[in-house]
Amino acid sequence: MAADTVLSPSKERTISRLVNAPRELVWKVWTDPEHIKHWWGPNGFTNTIFEMDVKPGGIWEFIMHGPDGTDYKNKSVYKEVVRYEKIVYDHVSPKFQFTVTFKEQGRKTLINIEMLFETPEQRDNVVKVFKADVGLKQNIYKLEGYLRKVSFEKEMILERVINAPRELVFDAWTDPTQLEKWWGPKGFTNPICNVDATPGGSMLIHMQGPDGIVYPMVGEFHEIVAPQKLVFTTAALDKNGKRLFEVLNTVTFSEEKGKTRLHLHAAVSNITEEGRRYVDGMNEGWNQSIDRLNDYVTSQSKTKTLNTDTPVVIERTFNAAIEKVWQAITDIDQMRQWYFPQLADFKPEEGFETQFNIHHEGRDYLHIWKVRDVIALKKISVEWKYGGYPGNSVVSFELFEQGSKTKLVLTHQGIETFMPGKHPELSKQSFTEGWTQFMDRGLKNFLEAVPAREN
Asked: Rounded to an integer, what distance in angstroms lies between the CA atom of residue 155 and that of residue 21?
């Protein structure tokens, strides 16, 4: 397991990890740009490397591409390089010194990382702004997953189209109450299904066959990018709790016209003689398991469609001209007064995107908006989703002139994609209550208090 410990209250952050790979291989994937580009960075990040000259005075320059499309330029200068043992480099901006050491532990390698900052304020700022503490852990988990990928003995690739939305399929892989209903070949049950679907989180599943025999397995998650990707290891255990083989599982989920294209790559390593007979049947076992997954999520999708796939619709008539109401729902200065004071920017233009964070009841909700449709004085609709949550909804404001008054029809659809069963704070009831307050208190009071603006 990874250990994250602050050694000095003023300058340092450290992390250690014992990885199941020989030191020479760990060194190679850490110093070869063709390897490191595949695993460096937090979950969901990719890399474009321009230069990587691993020697004292050498430059490492690259761009990390965030999952939201943001690019992060990085440049470091190597200070010390001891082959197979140690790397030290100075990161240019933000400034810190990065030291990593590699120690042999039999056929495994103990990795120790230290990030040394100039001041405690700088350290705290890097942690706050760049989430360096979380990113460092995720980086190590990704490294371990990649090491297993490049050292496998046998592999299996499976691709299927699942008859359910991507968010629903992803949730079935990460929610233990759902996973237990389909995991394993036909006829199997899972009387124990303990799954912590977080980077570094563990897995313990007891698969019970139709004959009553229990097949225990353990695992660990390395990378989670909801609802796009899962990387996790699994290991089958014998009756004494020893590992028969290990599997690095990489699962990707792609949207395909309301369905999900699932791609599974299973890389098997450390196979014992006893474990080989189980590995030989892995392909058939996975196919049966995916059949069960498809049946499960298809039934869940139909149930959710019948029960929850109805939008929130709120109609209100305001004692204000249509121009005044339009300004209130599209002008950034006015929106901050009745809607979200945290709004950093907004423009009523198709394709405009913005993000802002709301801290509510101890939680952060990163709002991600993209303007879809704009018909001046008539309609504006916005794609509305949350960072770190599944799903994508659409909020529409439609205006209808009624003499000197204006009828506004608000429609919020797609709420079911937020998986309210797992995230009750994003339920239809919560949104109904929230929108009612916005309409009856926020917008109504604002329109009655503010005179129309001259154009």
From this structure: 18
Task: Kindly state whether residue 454 falls inside one of the protein's structural domains.
Answer: no
When divided into structural domains, the chain yields a total of 3
Instruction: Tell whether 455 is covered by a domain.
Output: no
- Model pTM above 0.70: no
**Is the Cβ–Cβ distance between 148 and 25 less than 8 Å?**
no
CATH of the domain at 371: 3.30.530.20
The answer to whether residue 230 sits within a structural domain is yes
In this structure, the answer to whether residues 106 and 174 fall within a common structural domain is no
SS3 for 392-435 is CEEEEEEEEEECCEEEEEEEEECHHHHCCCCCHHHCHHHHHHHH
Span 139-168, pLDDT tens digits: 998 998 888 888 878 889 999 999 998 988
* Range of the structural domain that residue 14 is part of: 3-150
In which element (H, E) is residue 283 found? helix 282-308
Are residue 320 and residue 410 in the same domain, yes or no?
yes
**What number of CA atoms fall less than 13 Å from residue 394's CA on the CB side?**
11
Q: What's at 338, amino acid-wise?
A: W
pLDDT in tens, 331-390: 999 999 999 999 989 999 999 999 999 988 888 899 999 999 999 999 999 999 998 888
